[in-house]
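Q: What structure does this chain adopt?
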Amino acid sequence: MAITITIPTALRRFADNQSRVEVNASTVAEALEALTRGYPQLRAHLYDADGKLRNFVRIYVNADDVRSRDAQAPLQDGDEISIVPSIAGGLDPIIPHRVKLTNEEIKRYSRHLILPEVGVEGQERLKAAKVLLIGSGGLGSPLALYLTAAGVGTIGMVEFDTVDFSNLQRQILHFTPDVGKPKLKSAEEKLKAINPNLRFIPHPVKLTSDNALDIIKDYDVVIDGTDNFPTRYLVNDACVMLKKPNVYGSIFRWEGMASVFAPHLGGPCYRCWYPEPPPPGMVPSCAEGGVLGVICGIIGNIQANEAVKLIIGKGKPLMGRLLRFDAMEMSFREYKIPRDPNCPVCGKNPTITKLIDYLEFCGLGRGEAEGTSGDSIVEQKKQEQLGPDDISVEQLKAMRDAGEDFLLVDVRNPDEFAICTIEGSYKLPLPELPQRYRELPKDKLIVVHCKSGGRSARAVQFLKQQGYTKVKNVAGGINAWAERIDPSVPQY
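A:
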């Protein structure tokens, strides 16, 4: 009968880098014998010299530990056997060299040094490591703080934004007096205050297809802390091409996810999981849907933990696995991410061999579609660059002052209405528009706004598809209105 054996990351190099192997067997003992017969190098890692299963290796049949039952007990067709090492072993450290610690550093990292899995050797690898953080926002903040405190010797950071009040709810690297300051400057000040020995390398640029390979090539580990699809696919593809581990994290509202993408180490890449991005607007951004600030710390620290494990070569990385956290249920769930042999980037016959235009690939337009939560590395277009369907907030004010006959429609979410509104607007949340658009007159000009112009642009396109010919989008949305027309309206 067909039995699947799941090979742990640490042992895949002894099984042709396979994560799963199928064998024909009727008992656990027969299955393991078939496995080690096909891959002889595995035997020494599973059995001792007397042929007994090693104490630090656990064998599971589906969810049951085989040590709690007879290894000769019959298997059922389709059962899955999992090999799970129960102590630190993991991959070889991705940092082959070490940098000697000073006496001051020995004292600083004493709690690490007495951990058997770290010790002096692991701490010296951390000091030698070079880690690149993409962003200093919600995820990048706890990442930077804990990796610096852990003793990572070099941290690079890609960031071109300035600190905004709306960042402070989750971006704990930045303080209230930092508002208006470049995030890189704010980050360097905090990190050097924690660890003066840190080598901090700022990259005050937007990550693009033109510069990504040059920036990433000098680092050992890349950690993705962004909030938009163009950068996510760009980082993935560059890491695959350069054979760099990509530690992934994402957050939305009360949920977060983390994984490690590293095809060169036997795992999948991000495109194995999602070959293409969703259509623009289908997945709300954090600016549109919100995010609980503490989720950033939970997921960011999981990413930091994975980076440390990769650097010191201990434990089981989140390769081929997605860890999902739900704060409302206070639960973690794990999902498998198989490697796709037909992946366009890391598959057997890749079709993407150089970086592409990722904005075009993701089909993005303006405003929120490009990321406006303050965590984004994709730069917004200037408000002055109005498209044929756009009007500025100054034009909107002039139309209102002149008493022109039009309907102003607010397509934000109901929770956002409670924060601020433009007086006289008709409230119709974007998710309800396909069911309620007939409420809007076709014989009158429809002017649509949202927070900053992204959702309202999508609403305009939808209405045009339904036959509305008199419809305009307010570029910059209610935030631009608050900034340039009515300062009494709060920005968020």
